[in-house]
Amino acid sequence: MDRDARDPSLNEVRQELRQEIQASAAGLRGEIQASAAEVRRELREEIQASATETRRHVDAVEAGIRQHVDAALEDHRTRLEAFVAGQRERVEVFVEARTTETRRHFDVVAENMQSKVQLVAEGLVALDQKMERFQEEVHEDFCKVDRRLLRLEAERL
Fold it and tell me: Which of 2, 106, 118, 152: CA 20 to 30 A from 19?
């Protein structure tokens, strides 16, 4: 025979134990749920605090990076301005040198042209003198021919 059937008090004890365990389990469930709610709340607070701290850290890092980038940009801007100023000066020196060289070349060409114009002018003066001499010779020759003609006409008459 079954032991439970022989002893009714054992069934009662079992029943009482079950009820106590269930009551205890219900209490534990309540405590676990309260504890879980507390842990959730604490975790949320810690996560929020961590997020706030992380945001501050990110903001600080961002500010540092921004300062670094601004300083680097300013440094590059300064170096670029110096480079441009140097290049401008080099270009000005180059242009000045080319201008001086071109001016000298132009002066040489102008002097050469001036000497050629002088030669042409001297040639014209010489040609003019030749023409005057030629005109005088032709005039003398015409005068001689004219006198001959007059003599011939006078002889014929």
Answer: 2
**52: exposed, middle or buried (C-beta count within 10 Å: 0-12, 13-18, 19+)?**
exposed
Torsions phi, psi of 99, nearest 5? -65, -45
Cα–Cα dist 50/30, whole Å: 29
10 contacts 3 by C-beta, under 8 angstroms: yes
Residues 3-54 pLDDT 10s: 555 667 888 888 988 998 898 888 888 889 999 999 999 999 999 999 999 9
Domain count, the chain: 1
**Domain range spanning residue 41?**
3-156
Q: Record the pTM.
A: 0.42
